[in-house]
């Protein structure tokens, strides 16, 4: 806000009154006899001038916001009253006395006007009071040469300092204000240019996305299938969604990406709602890209959002110019989040985007809507598309964001509070008052002090200032006196000391920067991804620990060698050598799925990113390679495929007869006995299917920690009888014989009846399955110290030591091939081990190839005294197996 006439007048009035009061105080202290002979009158005049000067300083330097401040008002009233009393025995002559009386009357009138808050009248009265009081002091000092010199010096100083102070305050304040407006306008222009540059960045990102989609092993076929069939399948959409999500989150910071087929329309979109991309497809830039060989970009204004968009056509490699499959769109929303990211560099600056009618996005404290709307209108109307003004305590500047036709599309409004200039103005006023105080005393003391002494001190200060300007350290003026020159010398010494402290602080900042650089290097060394940096001569300069582990080469060996000797890479799909591309001297940043050859000859799949490293002048000083090991990801993908294949096969095995028999019953009339056989087969298949699903649920719940175990005492004899009887009813005709034997005195065990029974049943099922030639399968139970051993023995194929080590792992089978002779998910023994361990027991396996196997479950036994006490009481009714089955499954899914 510019310094107005009223403020200038206020400053000038208070400044003049302050200097006159100082002059009066100096005369009282140095030559009081020129004014009055009475000691009491001298004290009254000294206190009066001091009070008037203090009030003028407080109000003029803006220490007090208003002249009606009680402290300022009281000081003025007391000051003029004491000056009036001090003139009762005046010695300065009749003219001076009348002038003093006039000044007192004018000063009192100014106090009354201040109390009535008549600011203009009060200022005028104070100005007249300062003039008349100054005239009285000049008139009184004419009788002494020294006083006359002092008064003349004070008057000259008053005039010069007043003019210079008022002029400089206005010039400096306006200059700072102009610089603030210019800086804000430059910031608005820069932000508008950054937003326009987003259009080119969007084209570049769309091109990178287009290359990634057409060169991807999964995305390119999906794009081709959509173009050939004119339809989008779920698998194709999932492939494109995943690819675009990877591009958007991994490569394009803040950019949304979408793919649109030429026939189908929008297929996949990531980062923005599909409706936004549909609307962007209708923009002329998209239409131009459809018929062009290159991408197109634009800053697009939608209904309530500004978006920088790049559109690039997608083509098959075999197709000629003009033929394309679809379009890749990269879009960057210019929303509040974008403005906030741009405004973090300077919290005082607020940003806002306007269309021709309304704001589109805002960040920070905004100017009044009418002001912003007026500037936005001016931006759209003027040829240079810029505008600026000051309103309501804020600087406001606007610049145009141009569209592809070079016409203003948006107006970027930047604003900043004027508090900085206000603070500068206050400091200026205070500084001028302080300078006036020192300068006035200096002028008054010239008549009393020896000029040579003052000149000598000034010369010493000048020499010291010149030495300091030449950069010499430890410069001090050496001026030691109690006058103004001495204070100036002390201030200079303090300034020199402050400069040295700032120099030391700069040195410390340089050390801190070096430490920060070392810390960054340590962070790079500890990165999880392999990092290899090389200079413009393709010689390795940096090689972190992850690169050592990935490539099998130590950093001292790698540094200084050619990068293509250390990083031997080829593309993952075709095996093309990437050495030439890595050594290329261009500054393009690129990424590739590749394979690198380690020192031991092993090919490691990696995601390779190569980018330039720039020097101080922006030139390319080298390049950096980041390699991310993909072996773990590939292994997870392989395990997922095997799991889905195995689960699908196991679910189809019982489901096929179940559906077949169901169709027979639905289409044919069968005799009752035959129908019963069919139903029994359906029940058997359904139970097998239920067993598979239940096992999958168990492991899913167990890994999530949601499988409850409800412990109670279990009768081992009843448990084994139930398992063996049920198995005998479902026994096949391949010669298996089941036997059960429980040693007398075997105590009950502590466990969950359902899961313990299920574990024993899994062991019996394994024994029958891996005894293809039939034979006797025995199930026994006997005490084993504090445990009860439940053992299942079979005469089957047995296992080797290696097979035993992995038999209890999840998804492990004796035969992993697709043509394996034994079915199953490979979860049976894993379930047994997990259940037994949850019960505080353990599983023991005794086996040998071709000699059968013995699996033993050791479960904690119920202490004898506890068991006897429980048996002596009334036994709680036991739930039947079917009800128990349903309860455990329900709790596993719904509890925990």
Summary?
With 896 residues, this protein is an alpha+beta fold. A hairpin with a 4-residue loop joins strand 3 (296-301) and strand 4 (306-314).
Describe the structure.
By secondary structure, the chain is an alpha+beta fold. 55% of the residues lie in helices and 18% in strands. A hairpin with a 4-residue loop joins strand 11 (530-535) and strand 12 (540-543). Helix 2 packs antiparallel against helix 3. The protein is elongated. The two termini are 67 Å apart. Mean pLDDT is 77; it is low at 872-896.
Could you state the oligomeric state of the chains shown? single chain
Q: Given the structure, what is the number of helices? A: 27
Low-confidence stretches: 872-896
Number of strands: 23
What portion of residues belong to β-strands? Answer: 15-25%
Please compute the radius of gyration using only Cα atoms.
47 Å
- The chain-level mean pLDDT equals 77
Looking at the structure, what is the overall shape? elongated
What is the strand and helix layout of this fold?
Elements: H1 5-31, H2 39-60, H3 70-86, H4 94-115, H5 119-140, H6 145-215, H7 219-229, H8 234-250, E1 256-261, E2 265-270, H9 274-281, H10 284-290, E3 296-301, E4 306-314, E5 326-333, H11 336-343, E6 350-354, E7 359-363, H12 369-381, E8 386-391, E9 394-402, E10 408-417, H13 419-445, H14 451-469, H15 484-525, E11 530-535, E12 540-543, H16 545-551, H17 555-558, H18 563-566, E13 568-571, H19 579-583, E14 590-597, E15 603-614, E16 620-629, H20 631-667, H21 672-703, E17 712-714, H22 716-729, E18 736-742, E19 749-751, H23 753-769, E20 775-784, E21 787-794, H24 801-807, H25 828-838, E22 842-847, E23 853-860, H26 864-872, H27 881-894
Helix pairs in contact: 1-2, 1-5, 1-6, 1-13, 2-3, 3-4, 4-5, 6-7, 6-13, 7-8, 14-15, 20-21, 22-23, 23-25
